[in-house]
Amino acid sequence: MKNLYQQNKSRRRLLVATVFVIAVFVADTLSGGSARAFARAGAAYMWATGASAGETVFDSGFFSTRRALEKENKSLREELTQLQTRVAVFDILKSENESLRLLTRFTERERGITAPIISSFRSSPYGTFLIGAGSEDGIRAGNLVMAGDPQFGGFVIGRVENTDARISLVKAVFAPNETTDAVISGISVMLLGRGGGQARAEAPRDAEIKTGDAVFSPLMGGKAIGVVGGVEVDKGDASERVYVMVPFSLTSRFVYIIGE
Amino acid sequence: MWSTGLTVRCTLALTGFIAAVFASPWVVLIVMGLLALRWRAWEVLVIGLWMDFLWLPGAFFSSLPLFTFAAIALVWGFEPLRREFLTP
Q1: Less packed terminus of chain A by CB within 10 Å, N or C?
Q2: Where are its TM segments located (chain B) (predicted)?
Q3: ipTM of the complex
């Protein structure tokens, strides 16, 4: 009797939770995404806290000290730890500085703003990530997000989808199953995103497409969105398979946002 | 009152929430599956909603909120199995 009562109680709780989730959905849609903004602000805070905790742990030299215990005496170990800490801090500053210096070159060509990336690239099932700039900074939905080496014009890696006051959600150009019109060596193709900065396309077999060719998209203001990473032709096929990738690791700390 | 089962459930739920921000979506999906398989876990719905609130682009229903749908499917889809074998 008691078990039956408990089962009914937990089923009722589940039903209430389901109705609650649907109600939150509706409320969020009606309020223009205020619940989403709240959730993203929370996630950004969690990400910042996690990143800061990670840096503190690794910069403390704890792990390197453990490794050094096997080989060196105490005084050398302490010295090593100190030096490693300094090097780690220097590397972080250097990478941050380099990243920002590269982005300043964009500003010479395009009007826009620089924003930090405040989430992981791999956590989203929809190929999205968060940046630390929003409507208060002049970011609008549809703005293009660029990264890479500005010497070569940089690459569009995404488009702003949602903006909150200080945070925006960006959808990657090569988000999984996302299609994008593109032009490679004068040939129009349809790219199918595969996530992780990679995409695939089918082109006519006789198309002169080779590894390293730049890929442009008219939907992204005619800017480059990647390069050809490889071309594959199967015997008897009328088309060739073109693999496109972003020619740098998507681990930059900053991106540059421009109007379309 | 506080059992091992409850500890495991809380740990899995917390893992799901944190993994939504830091880990691959597969981790979140596996955690949701484990929770829904063993318990009538309302937190699976909240994790699904949290995931979509964080990462779903555009206005709602301009793209499908897959994780919320998956959460509803998991908690109600596993109900017959739970009722038959797992729930005391």
Answers
A1: N
A2: 12-35, 55-78
A3: 0.84
Q: Which residue of A has its CA nearest to B72?
A: A18
What's the angle, vertex CA A93, arms to CA A91 and CA A95, rounded to 5?
A: 65
Question: End-to-end distance of chain B based on CA atoms, in angstroms?
Answer: 16
Mutate to test the interface with A, among B15, B18, B29, B53 (most CBs of A within 10 A): B53
d(CA A129, CA A81): 35
Q: Quick check: helix, strand or coil at residue A241?
A: strand
Say yes or no for a CB contact (<8 Å) between B75 and A162.
no
- Among A190, A213, A195, which residue's Cα sits nearest to residue A158? A195
CA-atom Rg of chain B in angstroms: 13
The burial of A10, by beta-carbon neighbours within 10 Å (0-12 exposed, 13-18 middle, 19 or more buried), is given as: middle
Q: Convert the pLDDT of each residue in A142-193 to its tens digit.
A: 899 988 766 666 888 999 998 888 899 999 999 988 899 999 888 899 999 9
User: Tokens 């990657």 identify what position?
Assistant: A172
Q: Give yes or no for residue A96 having a pLDDT over 90.
A: no
